[in-house]
Design brief:
Elements lengths: L22 H9 L4 E6 L4 E4 L1 H7 L3 H4 L11 H6 L1 H12 L2 E8 L5 E12 L5 E10 L1 H12 L1 H10 L4 E6 L4 E4 L1 H7 L3 H4 L11 H6 L1 H12 L2 E8 L5 E12 L5 E10 L1 H11 L1 H11 L4 E4 L5 E4 L1 H7 L3 H4 L11 H14 L1 E10 L5 E12 L5 E10 L1 H16 L5 E3 L5 E4 L1 H7 L3 H4 L11 H14 L1 E10 L5 E9 L8
Antiparallel strand pairs: 1-2, 1-5, 3-4, 4-5, 6-7, 6-10, 8-9, 9-10, 11-12, 11-15, 13-14, 14-15, 16-17, 18-19
Helix pairs in contact: 6-7
């Protein structure tokens, strides 16, 4: 949780590099399966490996973090050509490198990935490694090749593709082809653009003014393809970022006659990259947004970080809390101490009941859920604990019990086997039997007609309820009380 602490399964950046990742950030890394997120040092040693990397490359985290070099992900051809080193140099020089490269899975199969590489720096600004966010674009690459070479397949894609915008235009930019994906992405219907509009309506005014579209088409003609990201403009005036692949179209004599553009909205990808680049700020925002008290505890039982909710429930400032003994803020300090020690010994605790004492004396009943967090070597750094305030729930439970006990009618709960599981005071009075003696005994034993009583509660299990079921209770004193029982089944949260 702490911005200065690193956590979970060794999948973390070195604390000397970027500071220790928060538990919340680690959840983001763990939950992303579409994107591979890898951290490595300047020598290429892998320090971070998320679930997406495992899915795409096939290696489990325990096989690579702290054990393998990222060279295992490069094809032999790229290693021989020195391409990986060249890419890292460009990333350091420009602050980022983005492009497509061939990659190698654990099973030795090849695939094409689009990668964004950003350098990581230490507190003094010295580069210490790289963060790589990548995605398998083999399907996109195959789609592009098929679109270039197969007219029939192209027509099928044009009709059915909604994820990808497919646009055809002539050399002057006049739109000649517009698929369903383009309609979804840009907002124009095919009848509004084909043969009527110029592709300049899709460019931002800034790009048009700078001459960027003309520059891109020139590069596409020169190199046979252009691929990159562009700011795009929808019909409603809203903007988005698209990844665009542009390929020239030729007539039978080989003369260029226009372009085919395949694009996709990557605004979500850009947002993910930005969030990961600003990890500490983002993680802190999540922590502070929590209504539950959150705290990190050192192996010595000292508080190392808290959120605002913890300050509010204790009445202490963050400065007062950090460095103090975690157990000091509870009505049972020894039980609190035993709780976090259980986390260190077992790895976690769930729904651990404690009562927090506010500076003013106000008490808050909470259930703590806690787990250990570790550095990249798997060493335990501390405990992350989240408390759920159950004061109102507990009060509601006590209130419900008070209502039960206030009833003048005998109230009883009966198990599936016909055993009494709970009673109120009125039941004790009418039977003359103490609560301890009633619970666990056969419900039917307290009536003049035990078989009829047994048949009554069995009817409830069959029908769901009974009403005004006549029975006579026999007290231990011999007194008989005629009663009408009304009963229904009760269930758990799964409907059992």
């Amino acid at each position: 949780m702490s911005p200065n602490n690193n956590a979970t399964k060794g999948q973390s950046l070195s604390s000397t590099d970027t500071g220790e990742l928060s538990v919340f950030l680690q959840n983001i890394l763990e939950s992303s399966t579409e994107y591979s997120i890898i951290g490595k040092d300047l020598e290429g040693n892998i320090l971070l490996w998320n679930e997406g990397a495992k899915r795409i490359y096939g290696y489990d985290v325990d096989e690579v973090v702290g054990k393998a070099n990222s060279s295992i992900l490069h094809t032999p051809e790229d290693l021989k050509s020195g391409k990986p080193a060249e890419i890292m140099s460009l990333a350091l020089k420009h602050g980022k490198w983005e492009g497509t490269i061939n990659r190698l899975r654990k099973d030795k199969s090849h695939f094409t990935a689009r990668i964004v590489i950003t350098p990581r720096y230490n507190s003094s600004g010295k580069p210490v490694g790289f963060l790589l966010i990548s995605k398998d674009i083999s399907d996109e690459t195959r789609l592009i090749e098929e679109l270039k070479n197969t007219q029939a397949f192209l027509q099928n894609i044009l009709e059915s593709s909604t994820e990808y915008s497919v646009i055809g235009k002539d050399l002057e930019g006049n739109i000649l082809l517009w698929n369903e994906g383009a309609k979804r992405l840009y907002g124009y219907d095919v009848n509004e653009v084909v043969g009527k509009a110029n592709s300049s309506i899709l460019h931002t005014p800034e790009d048009v003014q700078s001459g960027k579209p003309a520059e891109i088409t020139t590069l596409a003609l020169k190199n046979g393809k252009w691929e990159g990201t562009l700011n795009r403009l929808r019909k409603d005036g809203s903007r988005f970022i698209a990844r665009v692949v542009m390929t020239p179209r030729y007539d039978p004599s080989g003369k260029p006659i226009g372009f085919l553009l395949i694009s996709k909205d990557i605004s979500d990808e850009i947002r993910l990259i930005e969030e990961l680049k600003n990890t500490q700020f983002y993680a802190r925002s999540l922590i502070e947004a929590s209504l539950d008290p959150l705290v990190t505890i050192s192996p010595e039982g000292k508080i190392t970080d808290v959120n605002e909710a913890t300050a509010q429930i204790t009445g202490c400032t963050k400065e007062e809390l950090i460095g103090s003994d975690f157990s000091n803020y509870f009505t049972e300090p020894e039980k609190a101490r035993e709780g976090y020690q259980q986390v260190f010994s077992k790895g976690r605790v769930t729904d651990y009941s404690l009562t927090i004492r506010h500076k003013s004396g106000k008490l808050s009943d909470v259930l703590y859920n806690a787990s250990v967090y570790k550095n990249e070597k798997g060493n335990v750094l501390g405990v992350f604990a989240a408390a759920r305030d159950v004061t109102l729930t507990k009060q509601a439970s006590q209130y419900a019990r008070s209502l039960i006990e206030a009833s003048l009618d005998p109230l009883v709960t009966i198990s599936l086997e016909g055993k009494i599981t709970d009673v109120n005071d009125a039941t004790i009075k009418v039977t003359g039997v103490p609560r301890e003696s009633l619970i666990g005994t056969d419900f039917s034993n307290y009536f003049t007609e035990p078989e009829k009583a047994r048949e009554g509660y069995q009817q409830v299990f069959k029908k769901g309820f009974v009403t005004d079921y006549a029975l006579t209770i026999r007290s231990t004193s011999g007194k008989l009380t005629d009663v009408l029982y009304n009963a229904s089944v009760y269930k758990d949260d799964k409907g059992n």
